[in-house]
Structure formats: C-alpha cells, structure tokens
Specification:
alpha/beta; four-stranded parallel β-sheet; disordered N terminus
C-alpha cells in the first residue's frame, strides 16, 4: 500500500500504516492458569513441539504460594522463559467497561502494560484470550482488547529518541487530526518498533515508537 508521509521536526506523519509485530511468540493471559485452560494447545505446540521461543505474560499476578504451580505448568508446556507478571488486582466483572471502571484498572494502564511487554519481547506472533472473555470475564476481555486492532485507516506519528519528548508527539498527532478534519474511530495505541529489551543494549537515540490513532474512513 502506498504511503503518503511528511516530516515535522523529528516526527514522521504517515496516513496509512500496516501494523507488524517483530520477534517469537507472546501469549498474553489475564490470570495464571488461563494460558493452560484457553491456550493449552497453542503454547505446547509452539514451545514444546516446534521449539519456538515463547514468552507468557499475565495481567493479574498469581498468589505467591501458587507460583511453583505456574512455573511447573509452563515448563511442562515447553516454555523456558520466566513469565512476566502484571500488577492488576484480581477482580471480576462481566463487561469490559465494568472492568476498566474497577480500582487499579483502566484502559490506558492495560494498554501501557501490554506496550511495555511488546517492547521487552518484540514478538512475531501474539496469542491471547477470546474477545468475549470465554465465559464473559471482564479481565479476559481486557487482555484481548489490549492486543487487537482491526484493519483500519490509521493516522500515526513515528517518534525517535528517548521517551522524554513523547508528550509532544501526542500533541502533534492531535493537531494533525484536527488539521486534516479526521474523526477518531478508536483508542490510540503505542507500538514499540525499536526499544530497549532484555539482552541487548540500544542507544536511546535509536529508539523508535509509532503512536497510532484509528480514524474513520
């Protein structure tokens, strides 16, 4: 797809983008044991049979006395990377809106956590839970909501350097939306393209993030 772009200072403004993720397999689950119950075929196939590097991340941390159970389950599936545990409290709601209204939860904080997981792992493929939360669990819905972005027209800002100036990037994106007469069609996302991650040092001047906002056709 042809892209029209212009440069504003250190920012590239691009009308249409294809969203591509980058390194192994990331399994995102709401709670420990959800990855076994709902992704229990996918994880052992890729980690155990295919020998792929699989990383599992959870929104809600497990209780300390169940962590050996968590690690044993992942090891049995062939996962050799230590899991990433989130910080969201264990609460129950039947709707996504209700989940985000709970103390300790918000759409922004979930998106931020998942973005940092992407930056740490840089996965080729992301698998997660059902958009309807299997049996309707709001936290399961939140996991799916954080990683899905339907194919759509997107206005984006490509930001270079460390994160100290990212506020100006968001302001630039807002100004471009207004200047182009566009109407947002969803929540903005941050996509880490080149970012710090475990096992490799990258100069901050080489960091690259894309701030993407879905817009109506």
């Amino acid at each position: 797809m042809e892209q029209k772009a212009k440069r504003i200072g250190k920012l590239n403004i691009i009308d249409l983008i294809a969203i591509v993720l980058i390194v192994a397999v990331l399994a995102l689950a709401a709670h420990p044991d959800d990855e076994i119950l709902f992704l229990g075929g996918t994880i052992p196939y890729y980690a155990g049979e295919m020998g792929k590097a699989v990383q599992v991340a959870y929104l809600v941390p497990t209780m300390p006395y169940r962590r050996l159970e968590l690690l044993d389950g992942l090891w049995l599936c062939g996962v050799r990377n230590y899991p990433i545990l989130g910080h969201f409290p264990d609460q129950f709601q039947l709707t996504l809106k209700g989940m985000y209204a709970q103390k300790g939860w918000s759409r922004e904080s979930v998106y931020r956590f998942v973005t940092e997981v992407y930056r740490a792992c840089r996965p080729d493929v992301v698998v997660t839970q059902d958009v309807n939360g299997e049996y309707g669990h709001g936290a399961h819905r939140a996991a799916a909501d954080a990683v899905t972005l339907e194919a759509c027209r997107v206005l984006s800002v490509l930001y270079y350097g460390d994160y100290s100036g990212v506020g100006e990037a968001w302001l630039t994106l807002g100004r471009e939306v207004k200047a182009r007469g566009l109407k947002p069609a969803g929540a903005p996302r941050v996509l880490g393209i080149v970012a710090p991650y475990t096992g490799r040092e990258i100069e901050t001047r080489r960091y690259c993030s894309r701030l993407a906002l879905p817009v109506e056709e």
